[in-house]
Amino acid sequence: MKFAPMNYHYLRYPIKKFLDKVERSPFNSIDLYCSAPQLNLFDYPLSRLIELKKEIEAHHLSVMAMTPENCVYPVNFCTQDDLTRESSIRYYQRAIDTAQFLDCPCVQISTGFGYFDQPREEGWKYCRESLWTLAQYCEKKDVRLLLEELKVTTTNVLITSKDMDQMTYAKETIDDYFDNLGDKLQHIHFNDRGHTVPGDGDFPMKEYYDSIKNRGYDGTVSFEICDRRYYRDPDKAIDDIVAWMKANTNEFD
Q1: Among 86, 113, 124, 135, which is disulfide-ready with 155 (CB 3.0 to 4.6 Å)?
Q2: Hey, CA dihedral for 45, 47, 53, 56, is it positive or negative?
Q3: Which long-range contacts (CB under 8 A, 24 or more apart) does 46-53 make?
Q4: What is the spatial distance between Cα 253 and Cα 249, in angstroms, rounded to a whole number?
Q5: Chain segment 97-113, per-residue pLDDT in tens
Q6: How many Å apart are CA 109 and CA 100, to the nearest integer?
Q7: pLDDT of residue 72
Q8: CA–CA separation, 68 vs 85, rounded Å?
Q9: Residues paired with residue 220 on neighbouring β-strands, in sequence order
């Protein structure tokens, strides 16, 4: 497996602080979370993108995956509202273009949602149409499109691995995901409860890791650390991830 931290909990700092920390860690790649002020896909000039690529390369890092902002206003490619849906597709198109420029092999997106007072099938219809459009664009750009399901409070389109909510909230197991998705499972977010560092919550993270390993998974894994407790000292979160990995896995041997 190939592991990488994400910069979500560094959004109160310049991107360079995140890159500096990762370069000093055992990791050699990143999951690039795209949000202002670090990387605003709605308005990010080419000159800044060139600078970002140079910074990543100067830190001897690669971009494992890119995760654009999802499911927040005004991004929603499953909505019945045509203007929002079309602008969301253009937004993800820019993300795919950016990934290609940064030599990033994949872009991870999440489903939007249909109106909650309308039939689920309507949102699912627009979801399929939007994904088809984006998948065709990805094929031309040689970028893979990864789709993440969400909690029932966030979406009414894709909830479980059979639909393809986040695993534990949907009362599913590691084996459910491998059984239902097979080789379509290509990227994993490895976080404790509430998007926290492994060991900071109450999930059986060692058991999860062992189950993933036992299934022979050889894909990518990133740490999507979003809880605000890490905003003031994001470097410590990276240190704690590394400490957990060294104590519970052989990945850094």
Answers
A1: 113
A2: negative
A3: 49/98, 49/101, 49/102, 52/15, 52/102, 53/101, 53/102
A4: 9
A5: 999 999 999 999 988 88
A6: 15
A7: 77
A8: 16
A9: 2, 187
Cβ partners under 8 Å of residue 142, min gap 6: 100
Rg (CA), the chain: 18
Q: Residue 165: which pLDDT band, with cuts at 50, 70 and 90?
A: very low
What average pLDDT does the segment 165-170 reach? 62
DSSP string, 18-72: HHHHHHTSS--EEEEEE-TTT--TTS--HHHHHHHHHHHHHTT-EEEEEEE--SS
Q: Which of 67-81, 118-132, 134-148 is the most confident on average?
A: 134-148
Joined tokens for residue 126: 């627009």
Q: Is the pLDDT of residue 33 over 70?
A: yes
What's the sign of the alpha-carbon dihedral 164, 170, 173, 174? positive
- Angstrom distance (rounded) from CA 178 to CA 242: 26
The reported pLDDT for the residue numbered 156 is 63
Q: Give the Cα separation of 158 and 113 in Å (integer).
A: 9
| Amino acid type, 6 | M
Using CA atoms, how far apart are residues 101 and 107, in angstroms rounded to an integer? 12
Backbone angles phi, psi at 134, to 5 degrees: -70, -35
Encoded tokens for 81: 């509202």
Q: Which residues contact 220 (CB under 8 A, 6 or more apart)?
A: 1, 2, 3, 4, 64, 65, 106, 186, 187, 188
Each residue of 212-236: pLDDT tens digit? 999 999 999 999 999 999 999 999 9
pTM value is: 0.91
* Residue type present at position 221: V
